[in-house]
Amino acid sequence: MAEFQTVCRVGDLSEGESRTVEAGNKLIALFCQEGRYYAIDDVCPHMGASLSGGYVENGIVTCPWHAWRFRLADGAWADCPRLKIGCYPVRVEGDLIQVQMNGPPSPK
């Protein structure tokens, strides 16, 4: 069954910011872009860099170490969409930001 876990408060993440949070024993990169929240695996599959420290433009985060690029909306590698990292639904309940773990994949 799908389980949402609180990872932070709305005021903890401003527009254009990102941070690493823990949910379901995983490190998750949480982004606030254009008024929406996105959650993907924080660890780049190439060499393990934190994606929350990457540069975001046009809905794509660029890994700060070797420039691998991942779409925030679905976790797909922007240069080869067959490769994907975990992507998780996010909801806001009151002033809490919650990430869904152990549920169906987020819609594309």
Distance between the termini: 20 Å
Order of strands across the widest beta sheet? 2-3-4-8
Percentage of β-strand residues? 35-45%
What is the overall shape?
globular
Please give the radius of gyration in angstroms: 13 Å
Strand segment count: 10
List unreliable stretches of 5+ residues.
none
- Biggest pleated-sheet summary: 4 strands, antiparallel
Please tell me the overall pLDDT: 93
Q: Secondary-structure element order, as H and E? A: EEEEEEEEEE
Instruction: Name the assembly state.
Output: single chain
Roughly what percent helix?
under 10%
Count of alpha/pi helices: 0
Structural class: mainly beta
Structural commentary:
With 108 residues, this protein is an all-beta fold. Helices cover 0% and strands 44% of the residues. It has a four-stranded antiparallel sheet with strand order 2-3-4-8, with no helix packed on it. The two termini are 20 Å apart. The mean pLDDT is 93.
